[in-house]
Specification:
By secondary structure, the chain is of the alpha/beta class. Helix content is about 45%, strand content about 15%. It has two domains: about 160 residues, HAD superfamily/HAD-like (Rossmann fold); about 90 residues.
Length: about 260
């Protein structure tokens, strides 16, 4: 790895900038303890309402948390080892199986909708200076795209959420793992954007994301230029930061300094 220096002397010329969603535009980690508690209480009510509907005794918080954590572990292993994200309904089935709760397909579909709408129930925190920077990027004639792995929130709802924050208008191509079947760092997650823009040269694209082993490695492996963003959350734990990214920023507005 190399230490990426904050020097404005390094400039990149690109036609497209792709952006990760979680922990790059919006944080999935900076959640107040009160909000975390509310999320868990909401999940307790979801599964205990189903238990009541199917004449089952109430589950304890420990039982529900254990079942959900088992589902998280399975989904994480698939994501890391197979470079894809599990179908949301299959993830829900794992939780239900752990609870030994047999429900109808209609109720599973309702759970999918409920999980998918979590992003609106308690919205994530937005990165500072995001809107203004995206506007300035477009003003330079550079196109914007989103490359993001999905979990409980599917790509279709991420787009709706971006629209609710007046951000969707900036992006003209999307690569969501639930739609493409490929999760970062799989090359297909990146080349989807090249196909959308009919671009042959991957070096004319720059990807911005927060994870070294997912965003930076995936972008570099696909031939993109790469930028690691550490303004919301980072898996990097060294000071100074060590990264294989071409650029390191901790504030969105700093990206402009590196663009020709």
């Amino acid at each position: 790895m190399m230490s990426c220096l904050h020097t404005e002397e390094y400039k990149v010329s690109v036609d497209v900038i792709s952006v990760d969603f979680w922990n790059t535009m919006f944080s999935s980690h900076h959640v107040p303890e009160r909000q975390k508690k509310e999320r868990w209480e909401y999940k307790y009510s979801i599964y205990n309402n189903l238990a009541k509907k199917y004449n089952q005794p109430n589950y304890s918080q420990e039982q529900i948390e254990k079942a959900i954590k088992k589902e998280h572990k399975v989904a994480f292993d698939v994501w890391k080892n197979e470079q894809r994200t599990m179908n949301l309904s299959d993830r829900i089935r794992i939780t239900l199986d752990e609870l030994d709760l047999d429900v109808s397909e209609d109720d599973i579909n309702k759970l999918v909708t409920t999980y998918n709408n979590f992003i609106f129930y308690r919205p994530p925190v937005q990165a500072k200076n995001l809107n203004d920077t995206l506007e300035r990027i477009l003003d330079r004639g550079i196109k914007l795209a989103v490359i993001s792995d999905t979990g409980y929130i599917l790509g279709s709802n991420i787009k709706k959420f971006l629209e609710s924050r007046d951000l969707l208008k900036y992006f003209s191509a999307f690569s969501f793992s639930d739609e493409t079947g490929s999760a970062k760092p799989n090359r297909k997650a990146f080349t989807k954007i090249m196909d959308d823009f009919n671009i042959d040269d991957p070096s004319s694209l720059l990807h911005v994301g927060d994870m070294e082993e997912i965003d930076v490695f995936g972008a570099n492996n696909a031939g993109f230029k790469s930028c690691i963003y550490t303004g919301l959350y980072t898996t990097l734990r060294h000071d100074p930061f060590e990264t294989n990214a071409n650029i390191h920023i901790d504030n969105w507005e700093n990206l402009i300094d590196y663009l020709i």
